[in-house]
Design a protein that fits this description.
74% helix; mainly alpha
């Protein structure tokens, strides 16, 4: 939740001006934090959707960004114009499918993973120079190597590390409860650290993905070379505002 607030209102917030897709990305991340807090505070099954559905929404937004930029590169103007409506339909469909099958966790995993695979395929193709939004100009190549690729690598690393924390928490919980990994250190790690690390790392991954698409969007709009700064978390600044 704090990552979303920093992204929206922190020193890099001005870079989002008039680009509603990125506001929606951060809003989804904010709702994930609020939904997760509601779930952990109440431990009610009814609150599970408040935690899970925003995760579907944020990967849907990343999928929209990927598709929009890919269609823009190919000059598919008509398909690009239909994309917002298709995204709304996809979002509503995913919500309905999840709500009707919320007791089957595999349904969420399949929907989430399918979005994630598509997103990472686009991210990889852009980092490798297979796709572009500005004709692979010299400036775009510099931005790709100096800013976009590091953001993609950090997002992937954060997601992988968060997934490891989540897997350890879920897979070895019984061992810890039964005292097979000790009675002091392991219970402390499993109770207070792994789940918190999962939330923090995945929030950072979502933040870096948002910056990844923000920088690519700046190249599509011809805004020159952005600069990457750090203030606890990374943020982007432009010499002139997005419009």
């Amino acid at each position: 939740m704090s990552t979303a607030l920093v992204g929206l209102y922190g020193p890099g917030g001005l870079a989002l001006a008039n680009q509603y897709r990125f506001y929606l990305c951060y809003f989804a991340l904010l709702v994930i934090g609020l939904g997760s807090a509601a779930l952990h505070a109440s431990l009610l099954d009814s609150m599970q959707g408040c935690d899970v559905l925003p995760m579907l929404y944020i990967v849907t937004m990343f999928g929209f960004c990927s598709s929009d930029m890919y269609l823009g590169q190919r000059g598919a103007t008509r398909s690009r114009a239909l994309l917002p409506s298709l995204t709304i339909v996809l979002t509503l469909s995913s919500t309905c499918v999840y709500m009707l099958n919320h007791e089957v966790f595999a349904v969420f995993i399949v929907i989430f993973a399918s979005h994630l695979v598509f997103i990472f395929f686009y991210m990889a193709s852009y980092c490798l120079g297979i796709t572009s939004v500005a004709g692979n100009s010299r400036l775009e190549q510099e931005v790709r190597h100096q800013i976009v690729t590091p953001l993609a690598i950090s997002a992937g690393a954060c997601l992988a590390a968060g997934g490891i924390c989540w897997g350890l928490e879920m897979g070895f919980c019984s061992f810890v409860v039964n005292g097979r990994l000790g009675s002091v250190l392991a219970p402390f790690i499993w109770r207070y650290m792994l789940h918190s690390a999962w939330h923090a790392l995945t929030a950072m991954a979502a933040h870096n993905c948002t910056l990844f698409f923000l920088v690519i969007r700046s190249q599509e709009l011809g805004l020159g070379k952005p600069t990457l700064h750090w203030l606890g978390i990374p943020f982007i600044r432009f010499h002139r505002k997005l419009s």
